[in-house]
Amino acid sequence: QRLILATRNAHKVRELEAILSATGLDLDLVGADAYPEVPDVKETGTTFAENALLKARTLARATGLPAVADDSGLCVDVLGGAPGIFSARWAGRHGDDKANLDLLLAQLSDIDDPHRTAHFACAAALALPDGTERVVEGHLPGTLRRTPAGSGGFGYDPILQPEGESRTCAELSPEEKNAISHRGRAFRELAPVIGELLG
Ligand code: ITT
Ligand code: NA
């Protein structure tokens, strides 16, 4: 069964392939890049769930195939949940991970350790061409380092130290990150629903 990964973020594609392959579902996963004629969705939602549904729905309608999407970000408690849904464009240019991370660190420079709590959030959405839709959310709580560490992962991984971990997400192996991540949690919860609705 073909399932479109409605994302153009190569890091997400890699993580989703690993997470979904490990669920035992027999899926033929293709990235959104296989459908260049489908225009990018404007992320006009006010929540991760709304944006994930928008992305999945757009690909499913345009292609006539089931699609899953991921909308995700970092929510910092002392910033009232920001950058949140604006995580990918926090410093202005969409997808400039280094600029986003540098700006956030500067904004938190006066915040002491006990107040540097945050979580990654991921909404995982499934949309079928017939209009059936499901969305679930996964979280990864932790604290934010003052100095980036590690070269794995992407985005804010070098500064998020998961609860109960002494390393940042960027210092974890891909398998270790997927085992605890917001994305892993969300898509492992969605997997049986995918199996049921596509089966
Ligand atoms: P698509 O919309 O095409 O899927 P995108 O990169 O624009 O790709 P989002 O709008 O969901 O995706 O933005 C996600 C941002 O949140 C991403 O740019 C990172 O800055 C951050 N983020 C999400 N998951 C992350 C993770 O696992 N580790 C570190 N940062 C993450
Ligand atoms: Na987004």
Short description:
The active site is at 71 (proton acceptor). The chain has helices spanning 10-21, 48-63, 97-107, 174-180, 182-198, and strands at 2-5, 28-31, 67-76, 117-127, 133-144, 160-162.
SSE blueprint and pairings:
Elements: E1 2-5, H1 10-21, E2 28-31, H2 48-63, E3 67-76, H3 97-107, E4 117-127, E5 133-144, E6 160-162, H4 174-180, H5 182-198
Parallel strand pairs: 1-2, 1-3
Antiparallel strand pairs: 3-4, 4-5, 5-6
Helix pairs in contact: 1-5, 4-5
**What's the multimeric state?**
single chain
CATH architecture term:
Alpha-Beta Complex
**Helicity, in percent?**
25-40%
Poorly predicted parts: none
User: Number of DSSP helices?
Assistant: 5
Distance between the terminal alpha carbons, to the nearest Å?
A: 8 Å
Largest beta sheet, briefly?
A: 6 strands, mixed
Give the strand content. 15-25%
The set of bound ligands, ions and cofactors reads: inosine 5'-triphosphate, sodium ion
Mean pLDDT: 97
Order of helical and strand elements: EHEHEHEEEHH
Outline: globular
